[in-house]
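Protocol step 4 of 6: structure prediction from sequence.
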Amino acid sequence: MDTVFRLAVMDDLPALLALELRCFATDRLSRRSFRRMIERAHGQLRVIESEGQLLGYALVLFRRGTSSARLYSIAIAGTARGGGWGKRLLQHVEACAAEHGCTHLRLEVRIDNPVAIALYERNGYRRFGLIHDYYEDHTDALRMQKPLP
């Protein structure tokens, strides 16, 4: 199986939107948001592609004047889960953030998503805060971060 990690391009929009619909019930990125993220200079939308199929994506944002990057969203297709793709995608995003001079990668994750929380903790992310009523459906978010080399 030939797997590629690369930057998203406009031709990925239909597959990104389909993945977003399958992975998230609320707080979905729109076509307009994906388009803007593909074109934006202070962020990167990375995808995993295998045999012409989009397996997942991760969106990392960079902010001027800070050494922290933010993992805004990450999604892995249901058929690709359990194969280590989330971990590999995280590693690519972390390397990307480090290349941009960032010293930390931060994220928010739903407190009712133990699978994602476990993935982040296994990969060196530590809890540092809680945001009440963060998501569209009023679920709280756990704030996590990882120091980058």
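Step 5 (inspection) to follow. Residues 85-99 form the longest helix (15 residues).
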